[in-house]
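Folding Problem: From Residues to Backbone Shape
Fields: amino acid sequence; protein backbone structure tokens
RECORD BEGINS BELOW THIS LINE
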Amino acid sequence: MSDSQPTPETGQTSFQRTMDIAEIMSILPHRYPLLLIDRVIEMEPKKRIVALKNVTVNEPHFTGHFPDYPIMPGVMTIEAMAQAGGVLLLTEFTATERASQLMVFTGIQEARFRKPVLPGDQMRIEVTILQRRSTMAKLKGEATVDGKLVSEAIFTAALVKRVSAPKEGESA
């Protein structure tokens, strides 16, 4: 679904797009238990994305982090930011182009964890492109719960050729 609406600050039209889980799964290669975004609620192509993650106690990391006080691991909040950034960057490519490439996480800078993320929370993840080259990008991500900042980071990603695993009976 796409909408265009004038922004209050400039009066210029910005294009916003939403995506459900099926469309996200058609873009990202991640699957359970590592698919960490549930919905895209805003997207300005080549600029920014806002995604949601519904945190549930059923997620496997809660069995060991920490069983008596389940907290979503901070690195998982950063991974959710990277996945949202991946959706933003990968929507610039066709499905055929995406089939031969992966957007991989290449670095994390300035990561901060401000508050714990608990089962029942809904994380709002906003990612903005800071710099973009043909195969590399630097992004800034922020995750909030109930309007409060829970984590933030600057991270980098690179587009790489997808390597197929050798089929049974073939040599590597």
About this structure: Confidence is low (pLDDT under 50) at residues 1-13. DSSP finds three helices and eight strands in the chain. The first helix runs from residue 21 to 27.
